[in-house]
Amino acid sequence: MNIPAQIKEALSKGLISAIAQDAESNEVLMLAWMNEEALLKTIESKRATYFSRSRNSLWVKGETSGHFQEVVEIKFDCDGDAVLLKINQIGAACHTGEKSCFHNEFK
Amino acid sequence: MNIPAQIKEALSKGLISAIAQDAESNEVLMLAWMNEEALLKTIESKRATYFSRSRNSLWVKGETSGHFQEVVEIKFDCDGDAVLLKINQIGAACHTGEKSCFHNEFK
Fold first, then answer.
1. The model scores a pTM over 0.95
2. Which domain holds residue B19?
3. Buried-exposed string B16-26: b where 16+ CB fall within 10 A, e elsewhere
């Protein structure tokens, strides 16, 4: 798997954003970050793998909770600094137990 | 409109991410950035307003193209550093003319 040139360029400047969207309901579940290794692991394993900025290390989503994300499709945006993962979410995406991390509404 | 404390804290450290999702089709259209002023303008005007990192200035989406984004709902994530805008997209979200910026597939 070759990483497209636009993404390569973006990765040379830093982390890229990764949006996880439920492949069936189309609900947006979370936003996280990737370095090149995380992106390659995601493509190869078909399990969403991010780069944790707080722990400064790779992070296979679900490796402790069992709430893996099975990757169905990956798209990337026009400037190559964001990817959109269409996934099947096992369990909840959010560590709070909510299905989506975007569960807070402005009041 | 008071900005929730989690978002305030995230904004004190830098820009936050903003995902624009079509309110009807649920298609993810783009990812951009906001500072506090952009977020407040978005809430008040109900037109998506971002912070352009390349131009280092506020950017009302559609102000030159006419492709405004009418904001229907705003949610924010568990750590307050990303917002999800449910929008009605006038015209195309992407400057290429594609409906979504995420129109590139991995091959």
1. yes
2. 5-89
3. bbbbbbbbeee
* Closest partner CB to A104 (pick from B26, B27, B76): B76
- Look up the CATH number of the domain holding residue A62: 3.10.20.810
Whether residue B103 contacts residue A85, with contact meaning beta carbons closer than 8 Å, is answered with no
Domain contains B95: no
Q: Is position B27 within any domain?
A: yes
Helices A36-45 and A5-13, axial angle in degrees (round to 10): 140
Distances (CA, A) of A38 to A6, A59, A91, B19: 17, 8, 21, 21
- ipTM confidence score: 0.96
Asked if A105 has any chain B CB less than 8 Å from its own CB, the reply is yes
Q: How far apart are CA A39 and CA B103, in angstroms?
A: 18
Q: What is the pLDDT of residues A43-83, one digit of tens each?
A: 999 999 999 999 999 999 999 999 999 999 999 999 999 99
Q: Which residues of chain A have a CB within 8 Å of the CB of B82?
A: 31, 101-102
Of A11, A26, A36, A3, the closest CA to residue A85 belongs to A26
Closest partner residue to B84 among A76, A79, A102, by Cβ?
A: A102
Count of residues in chain A: 107
State whether B102 and A96 contact (CB < 8 Å). no
